[in-house]
Amino acid sequence: MAKLSWSSIALVLFLSVVFAVEVANCASACNYRCSATSHRNPCIEFCNMCCKKCLCVPSGTYGHKEECPCYNNWKTKEGTPKCP
User: Fold this and answer.
1) Which residues, other chains included, contact 19 with Cβ-Cβ below 8 Å and sequence gap of 6+?
2) How far apart are CA 84 and CA 51, in angstroms?
3) C-alpha 2 chain-centroid distance
4) What string of DSSP letters covers the chain?
5) How confident is the model at residue 19 (pLDDT cuts 50, 70, 90)?
6) What pTM value is reported for the model?
7) CB of 56 closer than 8 Å to CB of 68
8) pLDDT in the model for residue 23
9) pLDDT tens, position by position, 35-76
10) CA distance 34 to 38
11) What's the sign of the alpha-carbon dihedral 36, 39, 40, 44?
């Protein structure tokens, strides 16, 4: 088994904390992103799923998907956008 250096362990812990902070921001970002839709619950569900995968949510309540390529490019099996 390979030995891990303290710097490697510190880096893993740091990235874990950064990821946790980013995921924690998903809820507030998705609440705003979905605030103008009449389909709020599915919007929030899919937005949170996309945020957790992509680690970003486009600004505004509609559009601006070019700000987050992963969010923009994730499609359903039918080829429609998965992320609101």
Assistant:
1) 55
2) 10
3) 33
4) -PPPPHHHHHHHHHHHHHHHHHHHHHHHHHHHHTTT-S-HHHHHHHHHHHHHHHS---SSSS--GGG-HHHHH-B-TTSSBS--
5) very low
6) 0.70
7) yes
8) 58
9) 999 999 999 999 999 999 998 899 899 999 998 899 889 999
10) 9
11) negative
Q: Are 54 and 74 in contact (CB under 8 A)?
A: yes
Which two tokens mark 26? 């998903």
Cα–Cα distance for residue pair 6/34, rounded to 1 Å:
42
- The identity of residue 80, as a single letter, is T
Q: What tokens appear for 19 in the block?
A: 């990821």
CB 48 within 8 A of CB 71: no
Written as six digits, the tokens of 70 are 């992963």
Distance CA 37, CA 55 (A): 22
